[in-house]
Protein backbone atom coordinates (compact mmCIF):
# COMPACT_ATOMS: atom_id res chain seq x y z
CA UNK A 1 0.00 0.00 0.00
CA UNK A 2 2.76 2.45 0.94
CA UNK A 3 4.71 2.03 -2.34
CA UNK A 4 1.50 2.62 -4.32
CA UNK A 5 0.75 5.85 -2.38
CA UNK A 6 4.30 7.08 -2.92
CA UNK A 7 4.10 6.36 -6.65
CA UNK A 8 0.76 8.18 -6.92
CA UNK A 9 2.09 11.17 -4.96
CA UNK A 10 5.20 11.32 -7.13
CA UNK A 11 3.10 11.24 -10.28
CA UNK A 12 0.89 14.09 -9.03
CA UNK A 13 3.93 16.20 -8.10
CA UNK A 14 5.46 15.57 -11.53
CA UNK A 15 2.23 16.54 -13.33
CA UNK A 16 1.87 19.77 -11.33
CA UNK A 17 5.51 20.64 -12.03
CA UNK A 18 5.03 20.12 -15.77
CA UNK A 19 1.88 22.24 -15.73
CA UNK A 20 3.61 25.12 -13.95
CA UNK A 21 6.61 25.14 -16.28
CA UNK A 22 4.39 25.20 -19.37
CA UNK A 23 2.32 28.18 -18.19
CA UNK A 24 3.09 31.63 -19.54
CA UNK A 25 3.91 33.93 -16.67
CA UNK A 26 2.63 37.46 -17.08
CA UNK A 27 4.28 40.61 -15.84
CA UNK A 28 3.62 44.30 -16.28
CA UNK A 29 5.76 47.31 -17.00
CA UNK A 30 4.87 51.00 -16.77
CA UNK A 31 6.55 53.95 -18.40
CA UNK A 32 6.47 56.28 -21.40
CA UNK A 33 6.84 55.44 -25.08
CA UNK A 34 10.20 56.18 -26.65
CA UNK A 35 9.38 54.51 -29.99
CA UNK A 36 6.61 52.20 -31.21
CA UNK A 37 6.03 50.39 -34.51
CA UNK A 38 7.26 47.54 -36.69
CA UNK A 39 6.28 44.92 -34.13
CA UNK A 40 8.01 46.35 -31.08
CA UNK A 41 7.76 49.09 -28.50
CA UNK A 42 10.57 50.78 -26.60
CA UNK A 43 9.57 52.40 -23.34
CA UNK A 44 11.39 54.32 -20.68
CA UNK A 45 10.38 52.55 -17.49
CA UNK A 46 9.81 54.20 -14.12
CA UNK A 47 13.52 53.82 -13.26
CA UNK A 48 14.57 55.62 -16.47
CA UNK A 49 15.79 52.50 -18.30
CA UNK A 50 14.89 52.01 -21.97
CA UNK A 51 13.33 48.61 -22.61
CA UNK A 52 12.50 47.22 -26.05
CA UNK A 53 9.70 44.66 -26.11
CA UNK A 54 8.39 42.62 -29.05
CA UNK A 55 4.62 43.06 -29.50
CA UNK A 56 2.51 39.96 -30.15
CA UNK A 57 0.52 40.17 -33.40
CA UNK A 58 -2.67 39.57 -31.41
CA UNK A 59 -1.87 42.14 -28.69
CA UNK A 60 -4.74 44.29 -27.44
CA UNK A 61 -3.70 47.94 -27.78
CA UNK A 62 -5.74 50.86 -26.50
CA UNK A 63 -5.11 54.60 -26.36
CA UNK A 64 -7.29 56.75 -24.12
CA UNK A 65 -9.77 53.88 -23.80
CA UNK A 66 -10.17 53.30 -27.55
CA UNK A 67 -8.87 50.40 -29.64
CA UNK A 68 -5.70 51.55 -31.33
CA UNK A 69 -2.70 50.44 -33.38
CA UNK A 70 0.91 50.21 -32.26
CA UNK A 71 1.86 53.06 -34.62
CA UNK A 72 -0.64 55.35 -32.83
CA UNK A 73 1.46 55.29 -29.66
CA UNK A 74 3.69 58.34 -29.98
CA UNK A 75 6.74 59.32 -27.94
CA UNK A 76 5.76 60.57 -24.51
CA UNK A 77 2.56 58.50 -24.27
CA UNK A 78 2.19 56.91 -20.83
CA UNK A 79 1.75 53.15 -21.13
CA UNK A 80 1.17 50.05 -19.10
CA UNK A 81 2.50 46.97 -20.90
CA UNK A 82 1.44 43.44 -19.96
CA UNK A 83 3.87 40.76 -21.15
CA UNK A 84 3.87 36.98 -21.38
CA UNK A 85 6.46 34.43 -22.37
CA UNK A 86 5.54 32.78 -25.67
CA UNK A 87 7.88 30.37 -27.43
CA UNK A 88 10.65 31.30 -24.99
CA UNK A 89 10.34 35.00 -25.87
CA UNK A 90 8.86 37.84 -23.82
CA UNK A 91 6.15 39.62 -25.81
CA UNK A 92 3.65 42.38 -25.08
CA UNK A 93 0.10 41.03 -25.12
CA UNK A 94 -1.71 44.14 -23.89
CA UNK A 95 -0.70 47.80 -24.09
CA UNK A 96 -2.81 50.50 -22.45
CA UNK A 97 -1.82 54.04 -23.41
CA UNK A 98 -2.78 57.51 -22.12
CA UNK A 99 -2.01 60.59 -24.20
CA UNK A 100 0.11 63.28 -22.56
CA UNK A 101 -1.95 66.15 -21.17
Architecture blueprint of SSEs:
Blueprint: H1 2-22, E1 27-37, E2 40-45, E3 50-63, E4 66-67, E5 78-86, E6 89-98
Keywords:
101 residues; alpha+beta; OB fold (Dihydrolipoamide Acetyltransferase, E2P); 5-stranded mixed barrel; elongated
Task: Give an account of the 3D structure.
The protein has 101 residues and is α+β, with helices and mostly antiparallel strands. The protein has one domain (27-98): OB fold (Dihydrolipoamide Acetyltransferase, E2P) (Beta Barrel), CATH 2.40.50. 21% of the residues lie in helices and 51% in strands. It contains one helix and six strands. The protein has one helix spanning 2-22; strands at 27-37, 40-45, 50-63, 66-67, 78-86, 89-98. The protein has a five-stranded mixed beta barrel. Strand 1 and strand 2 (40-45) form a beta hairpin. The longest helix is centred in the first third of the chain and has 21 residues, at 2-22. The radius of gyration is 19 Å and the shape is elongated. The termini are far apart.
Q: Brief overview, please?
A:
The chain is an alpha+beta fold and 101 residues long. It has one helix and six strands, in the order H-E-E-E-E-E-E.
Termini distance? 69 Å
Which percent range describes the beta-strand content? over 45%
Task: Report the C-alpha radius of gyration, rounded.
Answer: 19 Å
What is the highest CATH level, the class?
Mainly Beta
What is the mean predicted local confidence, pLDDT? 85
Amino acid sequence: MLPRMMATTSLVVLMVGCLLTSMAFASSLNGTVDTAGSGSITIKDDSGTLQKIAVDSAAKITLDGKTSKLDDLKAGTSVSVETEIKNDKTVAVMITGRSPQ
